[in-house]
Amino acid sequence: MIARYSRPVMTAIWSAENRYRIWFEIEAHATDALAGLGVVPQAAAQALWDWWAAGPAIDVAAIDAIEAVTRHDVIAFLTWVAEQVGPDARYMHQGMTSSDVLDTCLAVQLRDAADLLIADLDALLAVLERRAREHKLTPTIGRSHGIHAEPVTFGLKLAQAHAEFQRARARLVAARAEVATCAISGAVGTFANIDPGVEAHVAAKLRLAVEPVSTQIIPRDRHAMFFATLGVIAGSVERLATEIRHLQRTEVLEAEEYFAPGQKGSSAMPHKRNPVLTENLTGLARMVRGYVTPALENVALWHERDISHSSVERYIGPDATITLDFALARLTGVVDKLLVYPERMARNMDRMGGLIHSQRVLLALTQAGVSREDSYRLVQRNAMKVWESDGAESLEALLGADPEVAAVLTPAQIAANFDLGYHFKHVDAVFARVFGH
User: Fold this and answer.
1) CA angle at residue 393 from 391 to 398, to 5 degrees?
2) Distance between CA 128 and CA 166 in Å, rounded?
3) Residue 256 β-bridge partners
4) Which of 146, 206, 371, 436 is most buried when burial is the number of CB atoms within 10 A of its CB?
5) Contact present, 247 and 302 (Cβ < 8 Å)
6) How far apart are CA 58 and CA 109, in angstroms?
7) Local structure of 351: helix, strand or coil
8) Which residues partner with 144 through β-bridges?
């Protein structure tokens, strides 16, 4: 992952030092359990922790040098630890296989990454709620197919995003639980050379669940669900980013990203204020979603194990979580500082001569005894005149001058259907659904 789109805390989870620290804890806890079962000497298990307590620096370069010879990362690590600890280190890894270490470590890393992402979502949800309440009754136009439809409020737009990210959070909590499993079951997962109690002990120490059947590896359907969840969250990031990008277009300009003093929008055009952050978020979301397919393809491995998944996960584990962490933090900042222009929203809403109230007139005509087909025809033929005049004509005035409409609705009855506040009478109910109060 490149530094431009990385944050230090998430990046640290995927560092070589952290990976080796987790590997050591897996091995040391397993050795403790083996000592408790009388398989290895208690003094050997204690020797590992005594060395660790002295605070040794993990020499990544030295381990890499050993791996260059052994061509096996876990063996290289065990060899390096043995060089530091001495003869007692021979009792490490008794009855275990490399996947016990690698898969359990990945579970810890993904769980810890999920914890950071859940915190990111909590921060985003807090900002969305604050801005939604701020603009709870700020009228704006709702659009379908990009075309003016009926009035909404800007607060409702943000409340919708809040509800979507609530679902994202719930999915991530479930995915976190599903991926956080421990496997210490030995070759082909039969526990032939290691007691299941060792696995239970390591799982408890690392705050993981026990994998019911590991077949030497933890089944990759768990990981596929995890990365699919990240992909869905990225889709929600892009959805909100795209909304903001559209609202910032010059001819719309109902909201825009904060433009900092000294910021430049273009190397050629000094007037430009571009939605660069939300455009960036759109690109980052594409990257996170791109990691979903390889995760799905990792599910179908050969027999009890192969390592075709390994190279994939070395990429997608760090990249997907680091990218999404950065994207969620960036989106939170965008929403927090988003510039909102209620006056422009009102102007845009009014520019089409009242067309946004056409459904209410349609319903009023049907309630006055006109068939739905005729009601639609009467409203539409007047609405088309407003369209063709680019809003210079007034739908209310045209309807009042239409003999067929005037025959069933008085001017006052027509005017009553052009009340903006009518559309917002249930905003409180929607907010109660989303925010609980």
Assistant:
1) 135
2) 11
3) 339
4) 206
5) no
6) 18
7) coil
8) 147
* Count of Cβ atoms closer than 10 Å to residue 326 Cβ: 21
Token pair for 194 = 């290691």
In which residue are the tokens 């009014």 written? Answer: 350
How far apart CA 301 and CA 309 sit, in angstroms, is 8
CB atoms within 10 A of CB 118: 14
3-class DSSP state of 347: helix
> 266: buried, middle or exposed (CB in 10 Å: 19+, 13-18, 0-12)?
exposed
**And the tokens for 136?**
């709870």
Contact 175, 321 (CB under 8 A): no
Q: Provide the pLDDT for residue 265.
A: 86
DSSP β-ladder status, 255-256 and 209-210: unpaired
The three-class DSSP label of residue 299 is coil
**Distance between CA atoms of residues 208 and 204, nearest Å:** 6
Question: 421 with 383: CB under 8 angstroms?
Answer: no
Concerning whether 72 is annotated as a catalytic residue, the answer is: no
Residues 63, 66, 68, 72: is their CA dihedral positive or negative?
A: negative
Could you give the CA distance from residue 210 to residue 82 in angstroms, rounded to a whole number?
28
What value does the mean pLDDT of the chain take? 96
Distance, CA of 37 to CA of 282 (rounded, Å): 54
Point out the catalytic residue in the list 15, 93, 185, 266: 266
Cα separation, 143 vs 150, in Å, equals: 7
* pTM for the model: 0.95
Q: Give how far Cα 47 sits from Cα of 42, 62, 63, 105, Å.
A: 9, 21, 20, 22
Q: Give 27-70 pLDDT, tens digit per residue.
A: 999 999 999 999 999 999 999 999 999 988 899 999 999 999 99
Query: 141 forms bridges with which residues in the sheet?
Result: 151
Buried b (16+ CB within 10 A) or exposed e, 383-416: bebbeeeebebbbbebbbebeebeebbeeebbee
CA–CA separation, 244 and 312 (whole Å): 34
266 annotated active-site: yes
Q: Name the percent of the chain lying above pLDDT 90.
A: 92
Residue 7 exposed, middle or buried by CB count within 10 Å (0-12, 13-18, 19+)? middle
Only one residue has tokens 């088309």, namely 384
- HSE, side-chain direction, 13 A CA sphere, residue 54: 10
Taking the C-alpha atoms of residue 209 and residue 201, their distance in angstroms, rounded to an integer, is: 10
Chain centroid to CA 241: 13
